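Q: Here's a chain of 60 amino acids. Please give me its 3D structure as tokens.
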Amino acid sequence: MKCTFCGKEMEKGTGKLVVKADGKILSFCKSKCEKNSIIRNPRRVAWTEVFKEQKQTKKV
């Protein structure tokens, strides 16, 4: 399972699952990711996998 915010792989049975009112399931590897998901876009945070992938595609 991957973290919804940072994209890192998590072991089964770790982290936190959050179910929103609309039925969407979010999984977080640590509280840092959970807190940042409320106020930030993962594309603009340098330590996320999405940011790293986006940066590599711009170089090419």
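Q: Can you summarize the key feature?
A: Residues 49-59 form the longest helix (11 residues).
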